[in-house]
Amino acid sequence: MTDNPGGGGRAGGARTAYPEIDSNKLAYSGRAPSHREMARQAARFGVWYYAETVLRGMRAYFFPILFYAVGQPLLYMIAMGIGLGALVDSGVGAVEGVDYLTFVAPALLVSTVVMSVSGEMTYPIMAGFKWQRLYYAPLASAISPGQVAMGHLLAVVIRFVVQSIIFWLIMVLFGAAPSGWSFLVVPIGVLTATAFGAPLQAYAATIRDEGFQFTFIQRFVVMPMFLFAGTFFPLTAMPGYLQWIGWISPVWHGTELARLATYGAPMSPLMFVVHLAFLIVCTVVGMALAVRVYTRRLRS
């Protein structure tokens, strides 16, 4: 990567976009790796290289991401702890043996990262193929289309690791994570996000012309998962003919695991395996489909 495509590291005293890298100086020093070595490294570490590219792009809206990552859990904790939670505790009492805030907080963490990944795996995917066409430049190197797909997913996963950690810390501050194993909500939340995000990435990569597809997903897939997957109440409180929404939803499976980690919600070993297997299978199948679709489209 060059600092200044038109010349040396600086021009007219202006600071470059990435002053820590001066590829021209490196080239003239004689320490630059050979083309063959750079191609070998790109083929080996292409996923990480493209993930770095996406993460660098996220720096443009770093503060909105940070504000969202901190502000949303704070608002949720205040609303559920002081508002709705106080009403539930004074009326219904304990839910699954804990106060309402402790019951709902892990579900909110899981649903928040899933809603966030739905934004990262729709329009940015379309931009990579059509609007900005960022996916095509790496193909001039040894980076493969599959590495582009997995690099984009990896960058999003890194973002949600940080977001989940912030959410968990706020839960701890509000006393909504009493278990010593509550930190496991972080990998559980990220796994849930990939279980939904990877298949969504594969689907978004198939769309060539923008229409109402992504709006449809937000309204009729993401929102029902948020409302009917046991986020605000146990899934068993719903009529049987609606419980299937939770059964096929990554949010419900992730929420159940998160509640187990946060306050030791009752769960049989069989259901633990079912929840975990569901999330892993969705992730692996989604990643495989994404690699296949990216490869077919970028090489067509």
Count of DSSP-assigned helices:
11
Class per helix and strand makeup: mainly alpha
Radius of gyration, Cα only, in angstroms? Answer: 22 Å
Low-confidence segments, ≥5 residues, pLDDT <50? 1-19
Task: Give the domain tally.
Answer: 2
Largest sheet: none
Broad shape: elongated
Task: Label this structure with key terms.
mainly alpha; 300 residues; 2 domains; disordered N terminus
Explain this structure.
Helix 4 runs antiparallel to helix 8, helix 7 (185-206) runs parallel beside helix 11 and helix 10 (250-263) packs across helix 11. 69% of the residues lie in helices and 0% in strands. The protein has helices at 23-29, 35-58, 62-91, 100-120, 123-131, 145-173, 185-206, 213-228, 244-247, 250-263, 269-298. The chain contains 11 helices and no strands. The protein has 2 domains: 1-32, no CATH class; 46-298, no CATH class. With 300 residues, the protein is mostly helical.
List the helices and strands and how they pair.
Elements: H1 23-29, H2 35-58, H3 62-91, H4 100-120, H5 123-131, H6 145-173, H7 185-206, H8 213-228, H9 244-247, H10 250-263, H11 269-298
Helix pairs in contact: 2-6, 3-4, 3-6, 4-6, 4-7, 4-8, 4-10, 6-7, 6-11, 7-10, 7-11, 10-11
Summarize the structure.
By secondary structure, the chain is mostly helical.
